[in-house]
């Protein structure tokens, strides 16, 4: 992927920008070739714009501030009409006691087009925080467990600071995952999950251990993290 873009930064925590990217993708079935999934290659030019804001007072364990991102991308493929990829998220941290913070999140997106590259579906699950393309976090699901064209998720974190750099965070989330946009705001087949994370803010970045469970099926999911996302 090659990107050329420009952006403007306002008041040190708000940015708006846009650009063009040249993307070459190869998808090959290496886990289960017996499924007879054909190898596919995409060469495309994408045009995109974004707005983002980050006023968190701490990048990983905030006690105040707002974090917002919204982006739209127009995917152009040979011999196909353009597809549109839209995603967004907003998070708000509110301190409710001396050591307790409530952090609320809303995130989701939609993709529409006659021919949509596989990597531009929304894949939900796990603790990935970078939101690359349509990879979204969700406690109680495996990494990228759910694939859909449209998604909306609500998440709440209750964060407790034990000592200056040691934290405990409880999480609950619920989400709706649909292939038809008109079904996105129905209440059928909503998935839920919850989890618990213990973290330490080290010089090398957060060190965290998490366990989570789906509200729809059994089994625990574990996650261990050292350092920053890139």
Q: Which descriptor suits the 3D outline?
A: globular
How many strands, which pairing sense, and closed or not: the largest β-sheet?
Answer: 11 strands, antiparallel
- Give the integer mean of the pLDDT values: 91
Measured as a percent range, the helix fraction is under 10%
Cα-atom radius of gyration: 19 Å
Q: What structural class is derived from the secondary structure elements?
A: mainly beta
N-to-C terminal Cα separation, in Å? 16 Å
Beta strand %: over 45%
Uncertain segments of ≥5 residues (pLDDT<50)? Answer: none
Q: Give me the count of strands.
A: 14
Q: Give the number of helices.
A: 0
In the sheet with the most strands, the strands line up as 1-2-3-4-5-6-10-11-12-13-14
| SSE arrangement, N to C | EEEEEEEEEEEEEE
List keywords for this structure.
mainly beta, 14 strands
General description of the model:
Helices cover 0% and strands 61% of the residues. The strands form two sheets. It has an eleven-stranded antiparallel beta sheet, with no helix packed on it. The chain has a three-stranded mixed beta sheet with strand order 8-7-9, with no helix packed on it. The protein is globular and about 60 Å long. It starts with a strand and ends with a strand. With 230 residues, the protein is mostly beta strands. It has no helices and 14 strands.
What is the fold's blueprint, element by element?
Elements lengths: L1 E9 L3 E14 L12 E15 L9 E14 L5 E13 L4 E13 L9 E3 L10 E2 L9 E3 L1 E12 L4 E13 L12 E12 L2 E10 L5 E7 L4
Parallel strand pairs: 7-8
Antiparallel strand pairs: 1-2, 2-3, 3-4, 4-5, 5-6, 6-10, 7-9, 10-11, 11-12, 12-13, 13-14
